[in-house]
Backbone:
């Protein structure tokens, strides 16, 4: 009797394992199902934490990949790791390679270590790593000839957003970052410089309240702080750090409801966050789709830029501010194109050294007063 | 003055969930069962009720929707605390361990189910519950500005819970029996009170209130629920201890914690505090330092229920 029970138990455990395994590769989109017949997928994307429709890194990268593949008749598929961690990510990359992948796109800095390991194990496979550079567990950086790390010049995206906000008539602004990691600091430094540049041109004085919340989460503390800023008269807050933005949006929605007018505005980050809240007037974006598209097309052209880090900036349309769903009063698309061109021409030299995270110390500003909150 | 009103309004956002949850913890502890599962119960209560808000948004909004969500949160909290009750009362397990188990289970469960249902773990909701001002009452000078503007219906529920808790605990037969079970269950048992029933009641009430506390915590402060209540369940335990297991002191403790929280976030908007240039960490530390000090000074004659945390054994006299 006991034996029978244990056999049954084993069977049920096996079954659940199999069930879990099969669900991982399921949920393919319509496109991947169409490609299923060939059973080999040249282009693969391994998702970071979260799903393919996360309105952030995964989705942006996936859009670029599907665009290229559909236009050029390539087969493609995405793979979702079962759990976080270097080993799980590496296993999923291996799964993609077994599935016939020749080029694997890995969105997010969490892939730095997995790609470091994979690039040596699979010298024939090409990797595109977004927002990071491969390194081992001891932070020894090394980029293989088959790997193309992509970084973004966040300071330029922040600059455009800050410039646009001031040109639109706002003079009291805020910046609420997540952790003070290099990407967030660069966003912030650029944002403040954009504000100052626009303030100088218009001959107005601007004030910026500036804080790093210390985490990438929506907390009541962040919400309360944003609410106090709006209450104090701050018009626009740049919510820069994952879910911190949600706290800022929540505070802005409350303020607008209270006043019965659109007085509290938010600037989104990374992707166009207009769909998250009506208070988002624009977003400081990394053009993930563009950069992935370019990287893949270089691979097929034989000009794959392996072995070195490629930086996407305004020169190659890699960063920008969202204008498609922007809610500006005065600032037009023409104004945006103009400042974008000036930034391309190098008219503004941006300081983006992340050694000092406090912009009131790092920058010399003329028309802008930064209040840095510890 | 405007700043003071704003501070009080912010304080209420932090204070009410702490107050409700700590009062829940009080019922459990006064019946003799330690409930450190408050955090996990808050997560579960918030999870199901926010899921409801998510499903019904679009064809339902405003305070009717919120009231149904409140009922769901309460029911979920009671159901989830049932596990703690079974472990603590029937199985006479170590109450700290079963509470810890629930705390670890809740966020994992919330993430797992949310992902199965909708693919992402964050559950979005539309906050349509803010009351811009309460008619008539908001015209009262000072108090009207503080309590009846930019508030939530949950604020008033919180105060209602406080009054009811005090009444139930001190003015009813049930309250007396509950307290007896927390002080000396053997004597209560000898007097013919079913200790098991009382402890079940205590834990279930704590579950109901903690579940409600979870919803009350999430709604005003975010636009989505991400399987966490940021440690407010543990903070509620601290409020309970700081409040010496008594409703009126718990009110004071919750206000103090809430006020320091609000201050640490918005001190930069208050000119003279910003001039002082004290780091926000100091404000954040104060409530905890105060709790430790209170514990030190009251440990000799602490008013903690004497039998709290000890599984009831009728043989032990």
Residues:
């Amino acid at each position: 009797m006991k034996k029978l029970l244990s056999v049954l138990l084993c069977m049920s455990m096996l079954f659940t394992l199999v069930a879990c395994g099969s669900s991982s590769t399921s949920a393919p989109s319509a496109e991947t199902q169409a490609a299923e017949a060939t059973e080999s997928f040249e282009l693969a994307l391994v998702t970071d934490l979260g799903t393919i429709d996360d309105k952030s890194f995964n989705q942006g990268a996936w859009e670029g990949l599907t665009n290229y593949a559909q236009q050029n008749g390539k087969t493609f598929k995405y793979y979702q790791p079962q759990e976080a961690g270097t080993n799980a990510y590496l296993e999923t990359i291996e799964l993609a390679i077994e599935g016939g992948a020749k080029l694997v796109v890995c969105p997010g800095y969490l892939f730095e270590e997995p790609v470091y390991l994979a690039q040596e194990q699979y010298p024939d496979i090409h990797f595109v790593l977004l927002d990071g550079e491969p390194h081992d567990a001891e932070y020894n950086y090394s980029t293989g000839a088959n790997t193309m790390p992509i970084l973004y010049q966040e300071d330029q995206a922040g600059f455009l957003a800050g410039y646009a906000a001031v040109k639109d008539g706002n003079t009291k602004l805020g910046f609420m970052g997540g952790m003070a990691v290099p990407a967030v600091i660069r966003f912030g430094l650029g944002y403040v410089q954009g504000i100052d540049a626009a303030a100088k041109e218009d001959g107005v004085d601007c004030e910026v309240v500036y804080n790093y919340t210390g985490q990438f989460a929506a907390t009541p503390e962040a919400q309360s702080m944003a609410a106090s800023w709006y209450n104090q008269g701050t018009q626009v807050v740049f919510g820069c750090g994952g879910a911190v933005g949600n706290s800022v949006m929540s505070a802005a929605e409350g303020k607008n409801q209270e006043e019965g007018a659109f007085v509290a505005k938010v600037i989104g980050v990374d992707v166009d966050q207009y769909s998250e809240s009506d208070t988002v007037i624009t977003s400081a974006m990394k053009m993930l789709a563009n950069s992935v598209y370019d990287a893949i097309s270089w691979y097929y052209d034989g000009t794959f830029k392996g072995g070195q880090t490629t930086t996407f900036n305004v020169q190659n349309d890699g960063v920008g501010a969202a204008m498609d769903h922007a809610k500006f009063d005065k600032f037009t698309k023409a104004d945006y194109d103009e400042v974008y061109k000036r930034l391309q021409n190098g008219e503004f030299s941006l300081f983006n050294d992340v050694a000092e995270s406090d912009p009131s110390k790092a920058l010399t500003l003329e028309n802008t007063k930064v209040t840095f909150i510890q | 003055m405007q700043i003071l009103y704003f501070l009080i309004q912010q304080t209420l956002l932090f204070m009410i969930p702490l107050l409700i949850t700590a009062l829940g913890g009080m019922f459990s502890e006064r019946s003799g069962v330690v409930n450190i599962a408050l955090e996990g119960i808050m997560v579960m209560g918030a999870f199901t009720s926010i899921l409801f808000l998510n499903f019904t948004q679009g064809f339902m909004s405003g305070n009717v929707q919120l009231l149904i969500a409140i009922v769901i949160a309460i029911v979920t909290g009671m159901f989830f605390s049932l596990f703690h009750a079974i472990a603590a009362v029937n199985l006479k397990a170590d109450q700290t361990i079963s509470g810890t188990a629930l705390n670890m289970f809740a966020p994992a469960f919330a993430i797992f189910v949310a992902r199965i249902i909708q693919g992402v773990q964050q559950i979005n909701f539309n906050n349509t519950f803010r009351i811009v001002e309460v008619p008539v009452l908001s015209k009262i000078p000072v108090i009207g500005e503080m309590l009846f503007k930019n508030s939530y219906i949950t604020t008033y529920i919180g105060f209602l819970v406080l009054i009811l808790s005090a009444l139930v605990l001190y003015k009813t037969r049930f309250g007396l029996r509950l307290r007896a079970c927390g002080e000396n269950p053997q004597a209560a048992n000898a007097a013919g009170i079913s200790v098991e029933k009382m402890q079940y009641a205590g834990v279930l009430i704590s579950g109901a209130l903690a579940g409600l506390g979870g919803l009350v915590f999430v709604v005003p402060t975010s636009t989505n629920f991400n399987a966490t209540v940021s440690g407010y369940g543990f903070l509620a335990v601290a409020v309970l201890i700081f409040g010496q297991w008594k409703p009126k002191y718990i009110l004071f403790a919750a206000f103090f914690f809430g006020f320091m929280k609000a201050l640490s976030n918005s001190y930069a908007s208050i000119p003279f505090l910003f001039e002082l240039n004290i780091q926000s960490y100091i404000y954040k530390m104060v409530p905890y330092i105060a709790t430790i000090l209170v514990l030190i000074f009251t440990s000799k004659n602490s008013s903690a229920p004497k039998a709290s945390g000890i599984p009831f054994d009728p043989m032990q006299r």
